[in-house]
């Protein structure tokens, strides 16, 4: 999961200066200030409060292994170079990124052995390529905490790559496998229309397109399509032919209102909490009107259309899954709010002030508890988008 900026504008690895051999036309415009998820190891740190993300990503584990086993040609990929390079984009902090990379690495090693053993049954251990993993997020990510958690027994060389994944990060044709989870649903910036009081997309009293007019939803959708086009163009240059990319993000069935899923209920409850605080004089109502979350959930059909329009990738798999399939009981609302705070507090604190954060998240907890039956009745919806692409 990635990051966000001043006034809630950016998020998920967004528009900062790009690095490492990116051409000028492909580079994203720089952003002057960014706010990461809560770093360190404190009570509200992301490293200690990303269990839900870990479990939701784990739902896709066997699918990733299957796609590598059935569709990734390790023999061809390793024939040009003895080093296989992986990138995790929007890595954040904590153990989640390392666990996912280990799953991918082991699946690639097994596939390599199965292919090589067919022609050289006794030599594949000696021929096993080296693996290098690049952990990417915005410059303001807590890379110190991330790298102090690196597994000591890892079977790969590790490197950090700070910068926005909406632009170039790596040299041309240098990466063999890309993974990104819970990052691409964050937009690089807010649609400009949301900041214009004269626009039909002026989002007064809300912090998201949940329960908003169609003009607001369309503005978000257009920005998402623009961001994904830039993301795909950058990855198309960096991935080798037949290289694979796995993307996990929030999604939604085509035509379903966002207010009908738990995340939409969460955002409506945050809006309501903030408006209550404004009415009580704790914050200004204008502060709520000028704040929006740059978060968008695409349908599989929408995402497929963007990929097909780009033309550089073949779609190997594109589907919605249930991110809460691992849950055996009701949603633990206080724990959920702590996870939300770990991921988003920086945005709210910068805009509304750190002194009201306890008030905001306390009110949010009470509001979600009041609708916990509704949340639990919808928490098994298929609202996680899993996509596997291959570079043509």
TrEMBL record:
Pfam families according to UniProt = Methyltransf_7 (PF03492)
Q: From which domain of life does this come?
A: Eukaryota
InterPro entries to which the protein is assigned, alphabetical: MeTrfase_7, MeTrfase_capping, SAM-dependent_MTases_sf
Offer one example of a GO biological process linked to this entry: methylation
Q: Name one GO molecular function term.
A: S-adenosylmethionine-dependent methyltransferase activity
Q: PANTHER family of this UniProt entry?
A: S-ADENOSYL-L-METHIONINE:CARBOXYL METHYLTRANSFERASE FAMILY PROTEIN
Name of the protein in its database record: S-adenosylmethionine-dependent methyltransferase
Organism listed in the record:
Prunus persica
């Amino acid at each position: 999961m990635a990051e966000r900026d001043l006034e809630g504008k950016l998020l998920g690895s967004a528009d900062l200066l790009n690095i490492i051999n990116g051409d000028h036309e492909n580079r994203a415009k720089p952003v002057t200030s960014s706010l990461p998820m809560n770093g360190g190891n404190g009570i509200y740190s992301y490293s200690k409060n990303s269990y839900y993300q870990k479990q939701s990503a784990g739902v896709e584990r066997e699918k990733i292994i299957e796609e590598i086993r059935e569709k990734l040609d390790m023999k061809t990929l390793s024939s040009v170079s003895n080093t296989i390079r992986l990138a995790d984009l929007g890595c954040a902090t904590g153990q989640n990124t390392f666990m996912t990379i280990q799953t991918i690495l082991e699946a690639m090693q097994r596939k390599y052995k199965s292919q090589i053993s067919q022609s050289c049954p006794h030599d594949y251990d000696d021929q096993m390529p080296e693996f290098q993993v690049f952990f990417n997020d915005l410059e303001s990510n807590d890379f110190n905490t991330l790298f102090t958690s690196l597994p000591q027994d890892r079977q790969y060389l590790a490197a950090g790559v700070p910068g926005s994944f909406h632009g170039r990060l790596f040299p041309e044709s240098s990466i063999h496998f890309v993974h990104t989870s819970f990052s691409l649903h964050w937009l690089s910036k807010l649609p400009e229309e949301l900041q214009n009081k004269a626009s039909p997309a002026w989002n007064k009293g809300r912090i998201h397109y949940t329960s908003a007019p169609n003009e607001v939803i369309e503005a978000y959708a257009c920005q998402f399509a623009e961001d994904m086009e830039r993301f795909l163009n950058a990855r198309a240059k960096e991935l080798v032919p037949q290289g694979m990319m796995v993307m996990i993000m929030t999604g939604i069935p085509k035509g379903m209102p966002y207010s009908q899923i738990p995340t939409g209920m969460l955002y409506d409850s945050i809006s309501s909490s903030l408006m209550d605080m404004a009415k009580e004089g704790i914050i200004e109502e204008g502060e709520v009107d000028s704040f929006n979350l740059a978060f968008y959930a695409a349908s599989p059909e929408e995402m497929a259309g963007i990929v097909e329009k780009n033309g550089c990738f073949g779609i190997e798999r594109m589907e919605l899954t249930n991110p809460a399939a691992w849950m055996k009981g009701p949603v633990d609302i206080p724990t959920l709010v702590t996870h939300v705070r770990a991921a988003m507090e920086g945005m709210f604190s910068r805009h509304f002030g750190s002194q009201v954060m306890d008030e905001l998240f306390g009110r949010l907890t009470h509001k979600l508890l009041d609708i916990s039956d509704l949340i639990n009745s919808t928490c098994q919806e298929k609202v996680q988008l899993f996509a596997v692409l291959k570079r043509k």
